[in-house]
Amino acid sequence: MIIVLKPTATEEQKEKILSKLKSYGFKIHLSEGVERTIIGAIGDERTLGDRPLVSFEGVEKVVPILKPYKVVSRDFRKDDALIQVGSAKFGAGYLSVIAGPCSVENEEMIFNVAERLKKAGVKVMRGGAFKPRTSPYAFQGLGVEGLKYLKKAADTYNLMVVTELMDPRDIDMFIEYSDIIQIGARNMQNFRLLSEVGKLRKPVILKRGLCSTIKEFLMAAEYIANEGNYNIILCERGIRSFDTETRNVLDLSAIPVIKANSYLPVIVDPSHGTGRKDCVGSMALAAVAAGADGVMIEVHPKPEEALSDGDQSINLDEFDKILSKIKNIAKIMDKSIED
Length: 339
Ligand code: PEP
Ligand code: MN
Description:
By secondary structure, the protein is of the alpha/beta class. The chain has helices at residues 11-23, 107-120, 144-156, 171-177, 191-198, 214-225, 254-261, 270-274, 277-289, 316-332, and strands at 2-5, 27-32, 37-42, 59-63, 83-85, 88-90, 96-100, 124-126, 160-164, 180-183, 204-207, 232-236, 266-268, 294-298. Helix 2 (107-120) packs parallel to helix 3, helix 5 crosses helix 6 (214-225) and helix 9 runs parallel beside helix 10.
């Protein structure tokens, strides 16, 4: 349930309500706005019995949250969340572009990419070091060595780093080498992993599962938020369908649907979403036009030589062209892409 406090509620009245809720075993999520405080209380409301919270001093109203996801729902927070990573901003009128290779392949290559991205004005670089490959015989990423190259290149060019975490045992490494932790599509419902990143305060990019509904996607985000980490950026990356022309079907309608139901920023990955480099530009632009708060694009200095996802990676010159068009569409959408 949501407990909305009166604008005049005192600190003492708030504390009294909070301690009451805690004594009944509720998990508390506080949203302290300029105007008023909203308390999200998650727990078994039957424990309250006939002791209504509205009778507490300082309480304006008590509203049940009817959605299965609670902390990430618009019921809990009306305005869009702004998630800031370094100088990159996602949501609440801001849009950021993330780019980088599918996998970090060697030090020279990631430095080359970082230099070009910096020149283009990109603030966040992606790159996989622990790769979720379908085949155990495919390139699995460079592991910790890849994380170190990624961080070194990012630091050299003052970029933020996003990279995929697959195993909670690697969390300490990711705290050290990344600025945003990515939970990939294949792990969207790895609930233990979600809870573990929920205990951190580092921003998380949560990618939609290959066959997940929007409700399941938001429930996965709820696992993270329920542990107290609200720094979640949702990423639409295509869902499986019957057509084999594209790798996945990019669900751009997910953007307005999610935004109607949640305050979290939504970004789009047109690279995995289509699996085709000739579709990446148009789908990136369409995503921004549909209201996305960012896009994440796979780039490679030589896509034809990529160790993973070469078919969907664009080269750095192509990226520059797409980026300037993204900036134009962002302007039309009243989204600020500069800091
Ligand atoms: C990725 O972004 O590197 C990736 C593997 O994407 P997804 O989890 O969406 O397949
Ligand atoms: Mn990839």
